[in-house]
TrEMBL record:
Tagged with keyword Transmembrane helix: yes
Keywords attached to this entry: Membrane, Transmembrane, Transmembrane helix
Full protein name: CLN6 protein
Keyword Transmembrane: yes
GO cellular component: endoplasmic reticulum; membrane
Organism: Pheucticus melanocephalus
UniProt superkingdom: Eukaryota
InterPro entries in alphabetical order: CLN6
Spans traversing the lipid bilayer: 38-65, 77-100
Gene Ontology BP term (one): lysosome organization
Amino acid sequence: YIPFFLILFIYFTGCFTPAAEQSRMPLAALLLVGPSSLYYWYLVTEGQIFILYIFTFFAMMALVMHQRRKGLVLDSNGLFLFLSFIITLLLIAAWVGWLWNDKILRKKYPGVIYIPEPWAFYTLHMNNLHAAKGTF
């Protein structure tokens, strides 16, 4: 995953423009921010790569603040990626908050950083519901 996030960050470094009007996202891009965020949420939670994701996100935030001092703003591509990462962080926080008191998943994912895998949640809770009903 390190090369993937490194490439994303390198791409992100080229997504700045001095013209504020180029930072507007078309409606189609706005509609795709949700699926993109869900993809990153799944990648981070199932791959257990939160540390890599959060370091990349903080590097992106630092770069945005640094470039703003130079008078540069994100273009539509950079804005899309940045918004996807922000919404991903919110989705991860909601996921962790929802499963915070799950005793079984807590045992499976001990430690300071508690981010359960979606597949573990499915096999623990959802799969049991299907088996109880007798349907697959």
